[in-house]
Amino acid sequence: MTNMFCLSITPAKLSDIPSEESILAAGRAVLESIRGWKEGKSYNHHTVKTFSRSKGPNDGAAWHCRVSEHTSDDATFDEFWDKLGNNKAENEKEFISEIKKVSLVKQISRTQSIWTLYYTFPPPVSPRVFTVLQTTHIEENPRRTGIIVSIPIDLSDDLELSKLEEHGVKGHYTSVERLMELESAKVEWRMATSSTPGGSIPQFITERTMAGKISEDVPHFLKWLKSHRRPTMLETPLPAPQAETYHNKDVTRDGFHEIVASGAVGSVSPSGFAMRS
Q1: What is the CATH number of domain 12-228?
Q2: What ranges do the domains of the chain cover?
Q3: Which residue in 220, 264, 271 sits closest to 243, CA to CA?
Q4: Using one digit for the tens of pLDDT, what is the confidence trace for 219-260?
Q5: Distance CA 6, CA 23 (A)
Q6: Which residues form the DUF3074 domain (predicted)?
Q7: Where do runs of H (alpha helix) occur along 155-243?
């Protein structure tokens, strides 16, 4: 009997990538388990809640989660999915400052692709390289729900593909994100991750700062998204009113009356007061 696939920081070989269904099932299992995790601090003016659980027998590291809810003023479901469900790595590079380069290693299908991400940090921390397979899925049951699962991948069996990775310390992470429409018309953004930076950085230092670090992604993403939003009709500024010019006409505005003398030119300001040139 085949063991059930579980999300962990142990990288999968190219020749041993689990099926898409197994990856999504493992991601859903993590999401379902969050209800039993320990609640931690709230961040970003208490709009981002965090949860965590200790390393289990099938884990290489502890798990950390953040949960936030958003109105359409922040982002609609379509806006979230457009940036996180499509070309996620490329978009993350735009709002996560530590990511300096991303490369598409292999497009497996419309919903699966392998990416390598190159992170830099202030000295003395060396650059890190994370290579992951990202699997996306969207459904309506009954409200729209989108899932993105990332698992670490080992490219060492393919020399040509491994050349696409930058030079740096190999780190590993796995994560699952869920975007879900709520009855309140809000969108819930939930993300859980387990990771190791590799190298000589003690794991306890990473764990201690993880909740705050993953929570920062929420305001960073929303700020970046708003800078790339297409303005709506209501947001588009109206053209400034043009001054009207009158010759030898009676001009009445808010009870003010003026007869413009012959040959003189008057202009009416936007406030409605008659002005003379």
Answers
A1: 3.30.530.20
A2: 12-228, 244-276
A3: 271
A4: 999 999 999 887 654 455 556 555 544 444 443 334 433 333
A5: 8
A6: 63-225
A7: 159-162, 203-228
